[in-house]
What does this fold into?
Amino acid sequence: MGEPIAEVGYLAGICGHDGTVWVKLVADGNGYLKVTLPYEEALGARVYNFDGANWRKSNLLWGYNALLDVNLGGTATGTSYFASTSAIPAGEIWIVQGASLRNQTRNVTAVTIYAARASGAYLVLADKRPLAQYDAAYFVGATPFMTGDVIWVAMAGTVAGDVIWANVAGYKMKVNM
It folds into this structure.
């Protein structure tokens, strides 16, 4: 007992099954088992996943890949103001953690922050009627959006020249490995 595996004759031929074939286990000079697989395979599900053809770096279930910070503000040109993010690209999920909309110039009759889902459904994140100058309609949470979804801000009761502040913030995740 306590002897390194390499020095114990009857254990020198020990094998392990890798799921397909039996392979001989190898010990280093200190008697510790050696990892003879590529690091990607040895790490398995901890850092890498097998996609059926290759070992690839895993993405966390809700893993951060990039900051989401979209300025949708601008200047009103008429009695309403609309602005939107681009459609969420293929291979990404956006987690919207906050969105806000306000008029810096005057009171308005209504503001809405919503998402147009790729499925055709709409999801209202915030709605406020009426809204005082400098007051904001805002959303705080952690809502996932997928490929093709678009986040919109809308304001009714504006006048041309009104200064609108609007932002969407959160983070982006890659879903393709």
User: Anything to note?
Assistant: The helical segments are 39-43. The first strand starts at residue 15 and ends at 17. The two ends are 46 Å apart (CA to CA). The chain has two domains: 5-57, 66-174.
